[in-house]
Amino acid sequence: MRQLIVLGIVGLIAQLIDGSLGMAYGVTSTTLLLATGIAPATASAAVHFSEIGTSLVSGISHHKFGNVDWRTVLILAVPGFIGAFAGATFLAGLNGDAATPWISGILLALGVYVVWRFLALGGARPTFKGRPGKGLLVPIGLVGGALDAIGGGGWGPVGTTTLLSSGRLEPRKVVGSIDTSEFVVAVGGSLGFLFALGSQGIDWSIAGALLVGGIIAAPFAAWLVKILPAKVLAIAAGGIIILTNARTIALSLGATPPVVTTILIALALAWVSLLVHVIRLERKTRREEAQAEPVPADA
């Protein structure tokens, strides 16, 4: 019972991060599961099955708060399903270690761009022109779905990062659309795991505990996305992208644990400083907008 409670908390934390920043459910939950001593294969399979339920509740919650662009979701869903199923069945035997640093390098660069793009606005409000087309969304779905199944995470980092950097959708709709379409990706990946491993490879108690924790967190995370200003949400997501991929790159280059820890602490401090700066700018902008509003004449 104690282990199931711990697993429920793991699912809650992972979904809170994923539902509010559009990424990291797989990375967070798998990492925390491994830290509790659960075997990697067991952890990966359980995470993918729990995502079916958590992403469904998350999508409903995001829709309720107006965070979903359904055209984006519909275009992403089919290639995401195909990519996830293929990744879980035909590509699962491939060694992705060599490609990981390169993928992380691209995502890191996009994360830096996201942070820079919104910092460059200063106190101005961000504008979002146009909507992402099929030429962008279909490759995101295929690549993100395949990476998600192969590496235990990738749908959010690839989809959220690319859409944020494109400047086509406001951050809350990027997060809501990626989280909503993740349901279809989770179904595709889970079917692939069943096809490749069989039901005996799934620990349903772990998946169930993660699911309960994730369901509890999903509505609250969607509400956070609704109320957070665009710049704050973008800087928060960009920071997660940079921290996650900087760690992967440092480890792949052979950095020792103390060096990796030092790098992450320095980046985290810079990230927190930027968040504080952006929050102050947002408050200043709101005060100026309030002062600029005409005062209604007394009747």
From TrEMBL:
It comes from the Bacteria. Belongs to the 4-toluene sulfonate uptake permease (TSUP) (TC 2.A.102) family. The keyword Transmembrane applies. It is a multi-pass membrane protein. PANTHER family: MEMBRANE TRANSPORTER PROTEIN MJ0441-RELATED, MEMBRANE TRANSPORTER PROTEIN YTNM-RELATED. Keywords: Cell membrane, Membrane, Transmembrane, Transmembrane helix. It is found in: Cell membrane; Membrane. It comes from Brevibacterium ammoniilyticum. The keyword NADP does not apply. The chain crosses the membrane at residues 32-52, 73-93, 99-119, 174-198, 204-225, 232-253, 259-279. This is Probable membrane transporter protein. InterPro entries: TM_pro_TauE-like (IPR002781), TSUP/Inactive_protease-like (IPR051598). Signal peptide: none annotated. Its main location: membrane. Coiled coil: none annotated.
